[in-house]
């Protein structure tokens, strides 16, 4: 961050410490249509329209043995491995149903299994899920194949199974290594366990390892979190994700067990983030997108420098132009110019599958304006800059009146951020400054016209800081 950190102030945080979308997608999920307006028939239309040259696949495994108190994911708490068998039956049937509406088989260039905890599954169940997937979505040569694991429930046999079927990337949940923080969030995970898991993964040939951390957790301080960073740097992962904790106890009742008085203030939370950026930058990691770090020789860093970094529901990627298929309860697909989310509730998901129907819960067919704003926002969030001429070349009809006319209100909203040094206008380019990257969601919100015009439902978004 260099000298940019010195310009931080309480006034700046107060001005931009608002709430807003995380922009995992644009438009955000709360603006999608529920099942009565976007159901199985619209889902089938999306699948029939899937014509991208490449494909990616996401599979959601919702099971966890215990709940982490900070979690905002769709999970099912159980210690019964038998529940997974019936779930795999449903996923297998869903893959068949989707296959009936997809015109041809194309190899997948990116695969990701998330959860929940994919390694809740036994080695045999992991092999079965892999066979279900690759029957319809074989791997492309050089595919990026990643899986999320919890070191607390993952053994060497499971890692060996994953490596054996073709996984080459591993993402480990760590969050924080401090015992007091771990106790407060209900996730006890000794550093030695994480270290042994990574060592085993290296021996088994995993080529890329990511570690997930969270800032803004109870009892975190700069001193404590700097120790967490030292522990992680000793593990030498290729990538580090540093997520902003969203404390939403009204939505997630289990978060009420986290004492709000133990949470860092907004300014303290921001200092945790900037300190982490400083530490990681001096240790050979590049700050990528909103919250990721990659070694300087990693393909994400190279894509960021080239302005070609992508972002989807599986995270940051260098793979552009894919139809993203998704399977399992709550899984989100991006196919044929539509977003589609499956039923999050396990019973509802299973009931739809048993009835021979696609388990659609909600979705959205993107308009031309949606596609334009999505491109602009994602380019800003991925690459810190966007070319107005580049957008015009990709959307010639929509931008025929001129960028300044089409985005007149957006540029008015952007002006204060330019004045505060968060954004620079450099000829054709709109550039987020190093300081502005701390408020990148605020920059993106300037171009989210429906957010400001009162369109769509009122939503409780997480704080930007």
CATH class of the largest domain: Alpha Beta
Largest sheet: 9 strands, mixed
Strand content: 15-25%
Number of discrete helical segments? 17
- Poorly predicted tracts of residues: 1-6
Describe this structure as you would to a colleague.
38% of the residues lie in helices and 22% in strands. It has helices at residues 10-16, 40-48, 82-99, 123-136, 156-165, 179-185, 191-203, 222-235, 266-282, 299-306, 346-354, 368-383, 388-394, 403-406, 408-419, 440-446, 449-453; strands spanning 33-34, 54-61, 63-64, 76-77, 108-115, 139-149, 169-175, 208-215, 239-244, 285-288, 292-295, 310-312, 315-317, 322-327, 332-335, 338-342, 360-365, 385-387, 423-426, 429-432. It is globular. The longest helix has 18 residues, at 82-99. The chain folds into 2 domains: 1-27 and 368-465, Orthogonal Bundle (Arc Repressor Mutant, subunit A), CATH 1.10.10; 33-327, tm_1862 like domain (pyruvate-formate lyase- activating enzyme, Alpha-Beta Horseshoe), CATH 3.80.30.20. The strands form 5 sheets. The protein has a 9-stranded mixed β-sheet with strand order 10-11-9-8-7-6-5-2-14, sandwiched between helices. It has a 4-stranded antiparallel β-sheet with strand order 1-17-16-15, with helices on one face. A 3-stranded antiparallel β-sheet has the order 18-20-19. Helix 8 links the parallel strand 8 (208-215) and strand 9. It is α/β, with parallel strands linked by helices and 465 residues long.
């Amino acid at each position: 961050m260099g000298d940019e950190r010195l310009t931080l102030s309480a006034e700046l945080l107060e001005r931009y410490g608002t709430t807003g979308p995380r922009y995992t997608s644009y438009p955000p999920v709360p603006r999608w249509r529920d099942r009565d307006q976007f159901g199985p028939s619209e889902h089938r239309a999306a699948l029939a329209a899937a014509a991208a040259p490449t494909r990616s696949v996401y599979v959601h495994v919702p099971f966890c043995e215990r709940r982490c108190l900070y979690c905002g994911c769709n999970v099912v708490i159980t210690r019964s491995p038998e529940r997974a068998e019936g779930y795999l039956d449903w996923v297998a049937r869903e893959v068949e149903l989707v296959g009936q509406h997809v015109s041809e088989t194309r190899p997948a260039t990116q695969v990701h299994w998330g959860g929940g905890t994919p390694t809740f599954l036994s080695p045999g169940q992991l092999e079965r899920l892999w066979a279900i997937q690759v029957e319809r979505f074989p791997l492309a040569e050089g595919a990026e194949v990643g899986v999320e694991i919890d070191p607390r429930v993952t053994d060497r046999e499971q890692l060996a199974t994953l490596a054996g079927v073709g996984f080459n990337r591993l993402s480990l949940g760590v969050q924080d290594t401090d015992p007091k923080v771990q106790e407060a969030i209900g996730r006890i995970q000794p550093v030695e366990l994480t270290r042994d898991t990574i060592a085993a993964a290296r021996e088994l040939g995993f080529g890329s390892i990511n570690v997930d951390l969270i800032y803004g957790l109870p009892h975190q301080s700069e001193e404590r979190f700097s120790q967490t960073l030292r522990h992680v740097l000793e593990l030498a992962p290729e990538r580090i994700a540093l997520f902003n904790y969203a404390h939403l106890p009204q939505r997630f009742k289990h978060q009420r067990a986290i004492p709000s008085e133990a949470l860092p203030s907004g300014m303290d939370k921001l200092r945790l983030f900037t300190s982490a950026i400083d530490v990681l930058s001096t240790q050979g990691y590049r700050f990528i997108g909103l919250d990721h770090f990659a070694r300087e020789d990693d393909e994400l860093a190279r894509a960021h420098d080239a302005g070609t970094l992508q972002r989807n529901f599986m995270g940051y990627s260098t793979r552009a132009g894919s139809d993203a298929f998704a399977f399992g309860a709550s899984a989100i697909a991006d196919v044929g110019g539509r977003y589609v989310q499956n039923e999050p509730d396990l019973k509802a998901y299973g009931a739809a599958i048993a009835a021979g129907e696609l388990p659609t819960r909600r979705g959205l067919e993107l308009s031309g304006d949606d596609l334009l704003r999505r491109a602009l926002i994602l380019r800003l969030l991925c690459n810190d800059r966007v070319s107005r001429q580049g957008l015009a070349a990709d959307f010639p009809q929509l931008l025929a009146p001129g960028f300044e006319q089409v985005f007149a209100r957006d540029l008015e909203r952007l002006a204060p951020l330019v004045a505060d040094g968060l954004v620079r206008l450099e000829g054709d380019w709109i550039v987020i400054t190093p300081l502005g990257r701390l408020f990148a969601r605020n920059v993106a919100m300037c171009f989210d016209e429906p957010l400001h015009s009162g369109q769509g439902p009122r939503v409780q978004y997480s704080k930007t800081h």
